[in-house]
């Protein structure tokens, strides 16, 4: 049975970059973001439940979820964010745990990519937690640049998650991503080889 490594970070800390390094090394990935999108596809129970709470104005003309409209609603209102999480969490958790189960005997290392790993209590379903880390100031700058957000909008998104410093404190492994992609890649490759996966 392989080691189940929960991988998390903060918004714009470079978690996707790190996941791609593991993917290119051939390790299976359980991707919570993909699962979260699948549970709200047109015709899904997840989407129907969101609509029953937030209304049809968050639906595109093709019946799909308008993420941008929903994002505006939930990032500016902690209560609405809690409601959305409460609706979707059971669907997402069930799928994540099923995917872990189906992959755990197929490789020496399984990466479980969950942005809200600590917030969702997933740390108890993995063997170890790795955090992709950059300091908050750099996180803010990268997020503003990446998503063309004002400082206030970027801060709202960052503050909707557990702070990166808090995540770093709780982590078993910290992958520092302050430098360039090449350096981060070498860091992960060295870790994989040292652990003999």
Helix share of residues? 40-55%
The H/E string reads EHEHHHHEEHHHEH
Beta strand %? 5-15%
* Average pLDDT level: 94
The oligomeric state of the chains shown is: single chain
In short:
The protein is α/β, with parallel strands linked by helices and 197 residues long. It is built from nine helices and five strands. The chain has a five-stranded parallel beta sheet with strand order 2-3-1-4-5, with helices on both faces.
What does this structure look like?
- This protein is an alpha/beta fold.
- It has helices at 15-24, 32-38, 45-54, 67-75, 78-103, 136-147, 151-159, 164-170, 181-195; strands spanning 3-9, 29-31, 109-113, 128-133, 173-176.
- It has a 5-stranded parallel sheet with strand order 2-3-1-4-5, sandwiched between helices.
- α1 crosses α9 (181-195) and α6 (136-147) crosses α7 (151-159).
- The longest helix has 26 residues, at 78-103.
- The model has no long low-confidence stretch (mean pLDDT 94).
Characteristic terms for this protein:
kinase; 197 residues; alpha/beta; Dephospho-CoA kinase; single chain
Sequence-ordered SSE layout with sheet pairings:
Layout: E1 3-9, H1 15-24, E2 29-31, H2 32-38, H3 45-54, H4 67-75, H5 78-103, E3 109-113, E4 128-133, H6 136-147, H7 151-159, H8 164-170, E5 173-176, H9 181-195
Parallel strand pairs: 1-3, 1-4, 2-3, 4-5
